[in-house]
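This section describes the prediction task in plain terms. A model, or a person checking by hand, is given the sequence of a single protein chain and must write out its three-dimensional structure as a string of tokens. No templates, partner chains or ligands are provided. The sample shown here is typical of the held-out split.
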Amino acid sequence: MPSTVSLKVMPLKVMLSAILISLIAIIGPSAIEAQSGSSSEQIAAAAMNRWKNSWETDPARTEKWSYEQGVLLKGIEGLWLNTADGKYFNFIQRSIDRFVNDDGTIKTYKLDDYNLDNINEGKLLLTLYRVTEKEKYKKAADHLREQLKTQPRTHEGGFWHKKIYPFQMWLDGLYMGGPFYAEYAAIFHDDAAFNDIAKQFVWMEAHARGPLAFVLTKRFKIPW
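The expected answer:
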């Protein structure tokens, strides 16, 4: 069936900061620092200064639980793991704590939006829970896991990317939801989930091929 290509645009500065920090985390800061003198720390410092008090820099807009912040914080997390510098972990915790209440509820998050983008930041909840063992992070992660349990699906079983996009699976939905789903399942011994996780990739591969065999389109819609 024909596939529809659709691109969502992340703010350029956010995207570049997140990509650079994430790449540095993967490569390892030592290799880059040998050439540029702590480039990874400089990039992270700029990002942490820009968003030190709020992810939303426009005072007219309300800060929201968002996938963009999740992307950036995963890059910061990689730098923390590579350097063991606690300031990176503290920044992650402060950023997440702006949203997570003591009872585990997440400010601005609505389960019934059924938006896979909102799962992405949950990866940091799992990190915080494993390090601190604070129940509020587990409870918050539980809310996101509950969303996945009732997330609308195609008839095959693939997650709709959002409730407002009926029967559409999006390629980035694998990134937004899959890693959290798998890590949650591993931590809390939800072994039956792994078959479902794997099938999301199988269905995407089966349906999202573009005109060129090696190209996966952004999204596809199954009208049944």
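For orientation: The chain is about 55% helix and 5% strand.
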